[in-house]
Design brief:
Blueprint (H helix, E strand, L loop, with lengths): L6 H4 L11 H14 L12 H7 L4 H13 L3 E4 L3 E4 L5 E5 L6 H4 E3 L6 E12 L2 H7 L6 E11 L2 E11 H4 L2 H8 L2 H6 L6 E11 L3 H7 L7 E10 L5 E10 L3 E5 L7
Parallel strand pairs: 3-11
Antiparallel strand pairs: 1-2, 3-4, 5-6, 6-7, 7-10, 8-9, 9-10
């Protein structure tokens, strides 16, 4: 993917009002290459030293151009791994009705072969006021926390923490590993059916840890969400989920999902 040294053709023309800074002209040239598809979504750019050499600029100048593109969401800079063109949406997430199931709500787009989830870690902790309120338990009661991530092939698309009352759902992570599905894992604990009681979605910037796990820049917003699930038979809250989607990889569709089952 080495770019040829053709500065006269690669650099954007100067503005009518005067001479644009070199970093801005590099930024505009790279932007055109990305928009026109000469650098495909997900592709890796050459190292900044190579870009600097190709454009006859210093590395500081090249890095400033790359930083501007990252701020606009066209690039993601992974320190230690390189600079990548931001990906197009890989999956559509259907939101609506009260039946929300991972395998039914996520619709694969393009060349993605599979969407799957992993448990990144588990721990048992005392419920704080907010978690206790959403679970309908007393603050201080033990809560099981499952940190989970979803992937389109091997590219992360979402992550979050599922909170459950530990007294009833201790061992849920192991059940998920056996069954490969939260719905089937919950059946081992007597939950025959459950429904989504509420979902709240907001846009915000990711934390450093979220950006690292989602493999995206910190200036790229995420779609943060909180969701509460209720057991149909009893009306009891079975889980409270706090997570986020990589907004540039997921399109959320809101509509009727009565047939999602």
């Amino acid at each position: 993917m080495k770019m040829k040294r053709q500065h006269d053709h690669q650099l954007a023309p100067q503005s009518a009002g005067g001479i644009d800074p070199l970093w801005r002209r590099i930024e505009q040239s790279l932007r055109s290459a990305i928009v026109e598809g000469r650098h495909a979504p997900g592709s890796k750019l050459p190292p900044d030293r190579q870009i600097a050499s190709d454009y006859g600029a210093s590395r500081v100048t090249a890095r400033r151009a790359l930083a501007a593109l990252e701020q606009d969401g066209l690039l993601r800079i992974e320190h230690g791994n390189g600079t990548f063109v931001s990906d197009e949406a890989l999956v559509h997430y259907r939101l609506g009705g009260n039946r929300v199931r991972f395998n039914q709500n996520l619709v694969v787009v393009g060349e993605v072969e599979k969407v799957h989830r992993r448990v990144l870690g588990t721990r048992e902790a005392k419920a704080g006021r907010d978690v206790a309120h959403h679970l309908g338990i007393v603050p201080g009661e033990p809560v099981l926390e499952l940190q989970m991530a979803a992937y389109a092939d091997e590219l992360p698309i979402s992550l979050g923490v599922r909170h459950c009352a530990a007294k009833r759902f201790r061992g849920l992570a192991e059940a998920f590993e056996r069954k490969g599905s939260i719905t089937r894992a919950l059946q081992e604990f007597g939950v025959v059916d459950y429904r989504r009681a509420s979902t709240e979605i907001t846009a915000r910037l990711p934390s450093p840890e979220e950006a690292r796990l989602l493999c995206q820049p910190r200036v790229q917003p995420v779609l943060a969400y909180m969701a509460t699930d209720i057991e149909v038979a009893t009306g009891d809250v079975i889980s409270y989920y706090v997570g986020c989607f990589a907004s540039h990889r997921v399109t959320i569709t809101i509509g009727d999902m009565a047939d999602a089952g």
